Every structure is written in structure tokens, then in C-alpha cells.
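Input C-alpha cells:
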């Protein structure tokens, strides 16, 4: 994708990589190269620490929980809001999406505005039906799998504490060998996440573009390979592991995590080290997927013409920085800071945004700038009242939030400081961090900075009120009075 003269409607390719931390780009050779040739936003934030609390902002430019609450699955629906895809479609864009995460499925309204919305989870179901057929041919029905017998025996022995640690390792290798046999020879995928591997997503994207390509194009591809795979670890596909050592690492952690009895076992140092090593393998795999996607787009570029590639993530991942693995429950930077990379035919004057603080809520603004339209127009197209638009346009900081039944957290983040307020049951907790001096957010400076805390809490109260959560805004109001 060469840099070309601007037209009014370049193709926009949005690649979202689930669970990519801002500091992990350094471990990805290809992505780093793209970032160095394009534009890398250094202070970019997701507006929530989990998929359902992040994507609403990418697609609607509004805070995640605007006029809504999470449902019983903790998902957030965007049916009532106008989406970027709807607006782009109105401008004449062909809109295509490939997603692989239930929280951004059509169930929650993410298919709105897309001419073609491919939910890879459903795609996988169709493939799975074929595999059940293979299983019935090989005598391995869902309930009983002959190749799983050794694993069952080992689990039984472990349960009765009849195996030494060394024997568990050996047994794990045996199980992994059988896994590979199933994966390679019988093509039964034992991994639970993602539903479709990144390489397959790229292949499917290729087929779709060949058939449905028309410019200008808005293409959104969501890659799931960095997400915890459901075993509580990260893993590239088994056929991408190149050494026995990698295989050994994978099997040890898979078995340890899967066979473990208590969650605390996860917190031992050996497991954390293994988890981080596996993470690097998964990052390398996603880097390969991006290179393949890039090659595909480049091949199509003569047809595509001017194209802007946007790569970002919905949230980061914790490695016990604040006592948690995984993501979703807190508003610290290992979860909220994400990379944002623009590449290709983006306008030069976006530079002013790169050094500033930005969040996924600014995403629509950037796209409108690319199209030569102003921010005011964006709010009009999205049907946002001017009071709300003005409030968010004038803020120097960004917002983040997450709701988990009894625990609700909100954050306001500026270049210097971050305030977090957490409502838990009947209590209200506050945190304030100097993110310049204390970027790892270890020292809560609430007591020594009451004025700054109060200023941030007032902004948060207004934000919560605009979002439509009146009872919560009132609780914060009462807290401020005390
Ligand atoms: Zn996610």
C-alpha cells in the first residue's frame, strides 16, 4: 500500500486484534515495521478493559455504556445507536466485516450497516458439523474418543496423587503427541479459542474480496488469536510450533492449567514465566497473520486504490501487575492502553492527534477527518445531542468504564493523572495515580491531592449523568458532598 494522493473516499481497512497490549508491538517484527512506516499513536486508550466495554466506542464514538447496561451475559448491545458502518454505507461505501467473538456478533447489533457480516463463530459451526461426520467415521463420537483414553487415565492417576511431578511432565508430552495426531491427521481442532485461526480468517477474507469487492470499501477484520484460548493460556496453532521446546512449554502449561485444582496454582512463578513465554509465541503467530493479510491487501491494491489500514486492539492483558491475570475487571493501563497504527493514505495533518491523548471514542473523528469532513458532521450523522458532543469534544482527558454486577468502575485519564472511582455494593472507593512519575500505578495519591481528585470526580459525575446512569451519578454526587 503506497502512500498516494488523497481522494475523498479512500478504502478503510480496520484490523482489530483482541487482547493486544500497547507494549507488545515491540515483540512483533512485522507490526513494528508497519508502525515505523505509518503513524503510531503513543497515548491511545480503549474505553473499557474487555470486548463488550470497548467495541461500542470504536463503532459509535460514544462511551461504552451510553444509555445502556450490560445484559445477563455481560454483553453490551448497540442496536439503538447509529454506527460508523451505517454512516459509511450512506456515503456509498461497500461494508464488509469478519468477526470471531460473540460480544461483537449480530446478537449485539454489530452487523448493523454491514452489507456482508461474516460471523466466524457461525462459520465454525458449519465446519464442525463436517468434523462430527469424520468422528463418526473414525469411531470417535463426541461422548467417547478412543484417543482421549490415555489422558483420562493420567487425570485419574493425578487425582489420586499417584504420579510424581516428573511423570506428569512425561505424561503431558504423551498427551500432546496424541493431540497433534488428532489435529494433523484427523483435523480435529482441540483448541477452544479462537473459533477460526487468524490464517483462516485471512484466507476467507481473500475469497470474499474476490467475490464482493467494490470500492470504496470499509473492511473490518477481528483477529482472536491472542485471547486466552479457554485453557487459561495462550497458544499458536499446534502446527505452527517449530521446536520441541515450544511444544514442551505448551503441553506443560496446558496440562498444568487444565489439570490444576485451585486457581492459586496459577500464581506460582513457574506458571507465570511459562505463560509469558507462550504469549511471545502467540504474538509471533499474530504477526505472521498480519503479514499475510497485508500481502493479500497489497495484491488487491491495483483494484483497491487509495487505502488506509488501521490496526488497533480492544484492550490489553494483565500478568499479575495488579493481582490479576486476564482482562476485564479493572481500569489499569496494562488493560486500557492499546496500540493504534495508521498506514497508507491517511492525511498528513493527523499528526496533531498522535502526540495527544486519544481513545477509541475518537475513532469516528479520525475517520471523518480522513474523509475531509469535520467533527460536527460526525456527531450529526451519529445523531448525538450537541450537549453530549460538546462535553466530549472539549475534554483533555479520556474515559474508561466496566460494569460487573456489584462492581462498577469509571476512570478519567489525562496525560498526567488518572482517577478511578469504584462502586462496590454500598461503598465507593477512589484511586488517583500520577501516571508520569508512577506509570505502573502503584501509589494511590488520593490523600495528598484532594483538589485534583474532586475536579476529576466532578467530570466523571457529568459523564455518568450524560451516559444516562442517573442513580449512579447521584451516588457520586452524595460522595462528593461528604
Ligand atoms: Zn476482547
Amino acid at each position: 500500500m503506497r502512500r498516494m494522493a488523497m481522494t475523498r473516499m479512500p478504502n478503510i481497512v480496520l484490523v482489530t486484534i483482541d487482547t493486544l497490549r500497547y507494549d507488545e508491538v515491540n515483540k512483533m517484527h512485522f507490526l513494528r515495521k508497519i508502525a515505523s512506516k505509518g503513524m503510531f499513536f503513543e497515548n491511545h486508550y480503549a474505553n473499557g478493559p474487555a470486548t463488550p466495554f470497548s467495541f461500542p466506542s470504536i463503532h459509535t464514538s460514544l462511551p461504552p455504556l451510553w444509555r445502556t447496561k450490560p445484559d445477563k451475559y455481560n454483553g453490551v448491545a448497540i442496536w439503538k445507536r447509529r454506527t460508523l458502518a451505517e454512516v459509511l454505507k450512506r456515503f456509498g461505501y461497500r461494508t464488509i466485516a469478519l468477526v470471531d467473538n460473540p460480544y461483537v456478533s449480530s446478537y449485539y447489533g454489530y452487523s448493523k450497516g454491514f452489507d456482508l457480516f461474516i460471523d466466524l463463530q457461525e462459520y465454525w459451526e458449519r465446519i464442525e458439523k463436517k468434523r462430527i461426520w469424520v468422528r463418526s467415521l473414525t469411531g470417535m463420537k463426541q461422548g467417547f474418543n478412543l484417543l482421549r483414553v490415555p489422558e483420562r487415565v493420567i487425570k485419574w492417576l493425578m487425582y489420586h496423587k499417584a504420579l510424581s511431578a516428573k511423570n506428569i511432565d512425561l505424561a503431558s508430552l504423551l498427551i500432546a503427541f496424541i493431540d497433534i495426531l488428532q489435529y494433523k491427521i484427523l483435523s480435529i481442532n482441540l483448541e477452544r479459542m479462537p473459533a477460526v485461526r487468524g490464517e483462516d480468517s485471512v484466507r476467507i477474507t481473500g475469497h470474499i474480496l474476490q467475490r464482493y469487492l467494490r470500492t470504496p470499501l470499509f473492511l473490518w477484520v477481528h483477529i482472536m488469536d491472542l485471547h486466552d484460548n479457554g485453557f487459561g493460556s495462550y497458544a499458536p496453532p499446534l502446527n505452527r510450533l517449530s521446536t520441541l521446546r515450544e511444544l514442551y512449554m505448551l503441553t506443560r502449561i496446558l496440562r498444568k492449567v487444565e489439570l490444576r485444582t485451585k486457581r492459586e496454582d496459577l500464581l506460582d512463578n513457574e506458571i507465570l514465566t511459562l505463560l509469558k513465554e507462550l504469549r511471545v509465541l502467540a504474538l509471533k503467530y499474530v504477526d505472521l497473520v498480519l503479514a499475510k493479510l497485508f500481502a493479500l491487501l497489497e495484491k488487491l491494491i491495483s483494484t483497491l486504490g487509495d487505502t488506509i489500514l488501521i490496526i488497533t486492539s480492544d484492550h490489553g492483558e494483565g500478568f499479575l501487575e495488579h493481582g490479576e491475570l486476564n482482562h476485564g475487571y479493572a481500569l489499569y493501563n496494562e488493560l486500557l492502553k492499546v496500540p493504534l497504527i495508521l498506514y497508507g493514505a491517511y492525511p498528513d495533518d493527523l499528526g496533531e492527534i498522535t502526540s495527544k491523548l486519544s481513545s477509541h471514542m475518537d475513532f469516528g473523528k479520525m475517520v471523518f477527518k480522513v474523509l475531509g469532513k469535520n467533527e460536527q458532521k460526525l456527531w450529526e450523522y451519529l445523531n448525538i445531542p450537541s450537549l453530549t458532543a460538546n462535553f466530549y469534544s472539549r475534554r483533555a482527558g479520556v474515559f474508561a468504564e466496566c460494569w460487573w454486577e456489584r462492581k462498577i468502575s469509571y476512570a478519567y485519564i489525562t496525560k498526567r493523572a488518572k482517577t478511578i472511582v469504584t462502586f462496590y455494593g454500598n461503598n465507593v472507593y477512589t484511586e488517583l495515580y500520577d501516571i508520569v512519575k508512577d506509570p505502573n500505578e502503584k501509589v494511590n495519591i488520593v490523600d495528598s491531592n484532594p483538589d485534583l481528585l474532586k475536579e476529576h470526580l466532578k467530570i466523571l459525575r457529568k459523564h455518568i449523568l450524560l451516559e444516562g446512569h442517573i442513580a449512579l451519578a447521584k451516588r457520586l454526587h452524595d460522595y462528593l458532598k461528604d
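The chain is about 40% helix and 15% strand. Residues 18-19, 51, 314-315 surround zinc ion (CB under 6 Å).
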